[in-house]
Amino acid sequence: MFINHAYAADTPPTDLMSFLPFIIIFVLFYFMLIRPQMKQAKAHKLMIESLKKDDEVVTNGGVLGKVVKIKDQFVTLEITTGTQIHIQKQSIQTLMPKGTIKSI
């Protein structure tokens, strides 16, 4: 008498509309994070491959120097007259315009 009848709840839709928020989030992540990072990595790889002798570069540690010798994985930089260091190619961050070292 006092007990109401219990009915089963409607099942939520399982079509494309339920996955739409996840799809939108993935598309936003791709265009705002993944794609720009891939472009930046590609540009850095091209810059590393195009290094040649007498280029002026800055390393990830902030060392400014001139490329003296290039090998497969390592580069020799001259940071002052008579002082040379060996670094990995991947640690080169930026290629500077010619004459940067003399202008400092």
Highlighted features:
104 residues; alpha+beta; SH3 type barrels; 2 domains; 5-stranded antiparallel β-sheet; 2 helices; rod-shaped
Helix content: 25-40%
CA-to-CA gap between the ends? 94 Å
Uncertain segments are none
Structural Rg: 28 Å
From N to C, what is the helix and strand string?
Answer: HEEEEEH
The overall pLDDT, averaged over residues, is 90
Strand content: 25-35%
Total of domains: 2
Please name the CATH architecture of the largest domain: Roll
Q: Major beta sheet, specifics?
A: 5 strands, antiparallel
Summary, kept brief:
The protein has 2 domains: 9-50; 52-104, SH3 type barrels (Roll), CATH 2.30.30. It has 2 helices and 5 strands, in the order αβββββα.
Task: Please describe the topology of this protein.
Elements: H1 16-49, E1 56-59, E2 64-70, E3 74-80, E4 83-88, E5 92-96, H2 100-103
Antiparallel strand pairs: 1-2, 1-5, 2-3, 3-4
Task: Explain this structure.
- With 104 residues, this protein is an alpha+beta fold.
- The protein has two domains: 9-50; 52-104, SH3 type barrels (Roll), CATH 2.30.30.
- It is 37% helix and 28% strand.
- A hairpin with a 3-residue loop joins β2 and β3.
- The longest helix has 34 residues, at 16-49.
- The termini are far apart.
